[in-house]
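fyi for ur records
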Amino acid sequence: MKASGNTVDEILNNLPEDRAEAFNNLHNVIVQNLPKGFEAAISYGGLGYVVPHTVYPAGYHCKPIEPLPFAGLASQKNSINFYHMGIYSDPELLEWFVAEYPKHSKQKLDMGKSCIRFKKFDQIPNELIGELMQKMTVKQWVDLYESKLKK
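which gave:
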């Protein structure tokens, strides 16, 4: 069920047929709502939304050759997974998201630390994900990321 590719377009074009439309719709919502400075890219071999090296030259501390990850989208065996490091790192943002989710979806929230799993592809709360993407600027993300590194 995983989509393979070396570019964003290759991943989007290599999705399983049963989830291609939902995945592409979610990707488009994310891109349309990305604050200035973030960009869609390949991140750790998958589709990511990152702070590029041109904006944050240090890159990701675990692997500085990689741009600083912020969000990601993956096609997994039983779900489309959306990852958002802001809700992992900012308790207030997590609280907002958890409170808003039931207003946008009848499905129970299936979530790990930064991972939200969507098993019903026709019920992805695209509008809510769009709002979430607008909640944190690149500067806010870099500042939060660096504050967590220093601890």
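The chain has a mean pLDDT of 93. thats all i got for now
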